[in-house]
Design brief:
elongated; single chain; 4-stranded antiparallel beta sheet; Alpha-Beta Plaits; alpha+beta; 4 strands
Length: 112
Amino acid sequence: MDTPGADIMDVFGQERLANAKVRCVVILGAGQQQDRPGPGEISWEQGRRKIQLQARDLLLAACHLLGGSGVTDLRILCSGVEETEGLAADDADTRADIFFYEVRELTGDGFI
């Protein structure tokens, strides 16, 4: 017995996989200057930068992590490792050592 719509899902899924884009995640943690007084201006600059990256369709998601593990934020970007490394290194908050970062390439099924 065939599942209704299974052929549509197969075609859709195959198209999505064929058109999957490279994605990277930037894992951010508290840097040496995380608790210094007055990081507001840097935070505002970083907020503007995230909006610019979203407008260029590079930034898919930016979120804060709760729980105190030392990892504080995640950012998912539509770019390869080299470009993402450059973007992360140029962030105001990483330049000011408010955050340290690690870049990892994501693999998946092409649905993000």
